[in-house]
Amino acid sequence: VEEEVDEGEKQLREMLARYRGVWVFIEQYDGEAAKVSWELLGTGAELAKSLGVELSAVIIGHKVEHLCDEAFGYGAHKAITLDAPVFANYRTKPYTDAICHLISKHRPEIILMGATGQGRDLAGAVATIVKTGLTADCTGLGIDDKRNLMQTRPAFGGNIMATIMCDRFRPQMSTVRPHVMPMPEFQVGRTGEVVREQYDLREEDVLVKVIEVLSDKGGKDIDIAGAEIIVSGGRGLMNKENFAMLQELADELGGVVGASRSAVDAGWMPHSRQVGQTGKTVRPKIYVACGISGAIQHLVGMQDSDVVIAINRDPEAPIFQVATYGIVGDLFQIVPSIIRKVRSL
Ligand code: FAD
């Protein structure tokens, strides 16, 4: 029996060893890459370095060749492209089939995608077909001493951080939330190898047709995820009208207004402004939390901000544990006095 176990383990190790390299899927719309893809190249570069393997950017689309140079600038050694009209707009089936084809040909050990609508859809479909594990919504990635990917993500409603491994299957797949990983520095003039692949797929064979693409660029609401200064309000604001005061402060500071889930659930702010586990992950230079208690589900969305200023009348509020500066007191007195002070500068 022991011999059989050893033989099984040996075969497993041999199978795992046939997979080499780190891939980052470059999500793009109309030839413009989603920022999370570049963030993931930064993380992918670190993982590839500790494994001693190459980092490849996988670029699928139509007329997307220019993204190769961008990918090299952000740290990729290689760009694997599939460029054809059938890939012009994202559709689950063609992209899934194409990536599965590339995986069986190149056998990467790790594949990272953004935890965006597109990345979540694609990663799940790919993992199902290639029969491997997928850890969604990771907030941290590392390598253990057996070359396995350690994937950290909030679990049980955000009450614990779980580290998940996929140590018996390859590739190891993760989706990672936008803005969790730092943006790597762009290295001008950095180059790499372009591998142009082909995948035979005719438009007639794709059942889903894209009739029209509606863009919300420049649309109704701003994207708090990319903001450098965020003034957020929680249940302590008491009502919708009081958010005008936070907007005033945000305007003075050149920032935007965010909110806790309680404020969003109460209908005081739209969901697009929600910070936290079920909202946006933000990483601003300054995050001002007003009347927010600091539940773990809120903290996971903002605790990587450079400076956190918390205003809360409860000195025991958990938000103070992550605050750079804490002000204990009534926000209805403190916020107007900060506005006055900023105006007088
Ligand atoms: P409260 O916890 O009620 O805190 C209000 C705070 O305001 C208190 O600390 C109080 O002392 C202070 N306060 C009141 N009046 C004043 C005043 N006049 N001056 C100063 N301070 C005052 N939450 C999120 O935010 N984002 C998420 O994405 C999210 N996802 C979740 C996902 C799951 C699965 C679950 C279970 C929960 C999630 N939550 C999320 C909810 C989270 O657990 C908390 O309930 C929520 O963050 C609390 O919001 P709050 O801090 O505004 O309200």
UniProtKB/TrEMBL annotation:
<comment type="similarity">
    <text>Belongs to the ETF alpha-subunit/FixB family.</text>
</comment>
<keyword id="KW-0285">Flavoprotein</keyword>
<keyword id="KW-0175">Coiled coil</keyword>
<dbReference type="GO" id="GO:0050660">
    <property type="term" value="F:flavin adenine dinucleotide binding"/>
</dbReference>
<feature type="coiled-coil region">
    <location>
        <begin position="1"/>
        <end position="18"/>
    </location>
</feature>
<protein>
    <recommendedName>
        <fullName>Electron transfer flavoprotein subunit alpha</fullName>
    </recommendedName>
</protein>
<keyword id="KW-0274">FAD</keyword>
<keyword id="KW-0813">Transport</keyword>
<dbReference type="GO" id="GO:0009055">
    <property type="term" value="F:electron transfer activity"/>
</dbReference>
<keyword id="KW-0249">Electron transport</keyword>
<dbReference type="GO" id="GO:0033539">
    <property type="term" value="P:fatty acid beta-oxidation using acyl-CoA dehydrogenase"/>
</dbReference>
<comment type="function">
    <text>The electron transfer flavoprotein serves as a specific electron acceptor for other dehydrogenases. It transfers the electrons to the main respiratory chain via ETF-ubiquinone oxidoreductase (ETF dehydrogenase).</text>
</comment>
